[in-house]
């Protein structure tokens, strides 16, 4: 047993060091982008700020845009887990509502740092395009998870539509003090349809 522990410990340290380097790069990149503008910052500037080589940077982030969305993989994993690991008896939509309100709506949407990040993405075409591609990938993965939970074909159009609107719902909260209420109403619409929530329209 002691031999296994000795072998595992160095791996744990290596993984922690890699995670720390990745976080340092992402933090340095975002700071520089916000200070100077995305197009005015080069890969070498970021590597120097994090005190690593450009080769090391590319091991963690294959493209410059990915530095801004460093939690992309974790976000998708949490999204899919909301569907696959939901409590017994909870509907898929209820689980996704809970996930949206917990992870994508809240203080971050009115926080100054988040507002600066959102402005950076919206004002930079390369980042807007990357974000769109990222969300399209999440949308496909989520649609497949919903289809799996529903026992439907992977490419079922209803599951694809639900995945799309679930991912778009939190956008209604951006920059709004009543963000939770807005997202909750969006999910009410998804659950009950327009006739079930509209004031008679």
Description:
By secondary structure, the chain is mainly α. It has helices at residues 2-36, 43-50, 54-60, 72-84, 92-104, 107-110, 112-122, 125-150, 157-168, 179-192, 194-197. Helix 5 (92-104) runs antiparallel to helix 10. The model is unreliable at 1-9 (pLDDT under 50).
The best one-word shape is: globular
The total count of helices amounts to 11
Oligomeric nature of the chains: single chain
- Model regions low in confidence, pLDDT < 50 over at least 5 residues: 1-9
Overall domain count: 2
Please summarize the sheet with the most strands: none
Mean residue pLDDT: 86
Q: How would you summarize the topology of this molecule?
A:
Blueprint lengths: L1 H35 L6 H8 L3 H7 L11 H13 L7 H13 L2 H4 L1 H11 L2 H26 L6 H12 L10 H14 L1 H4 L4
Helix pairs in contact: 1-2, 4-5, 4-8, 5-10, 8-9
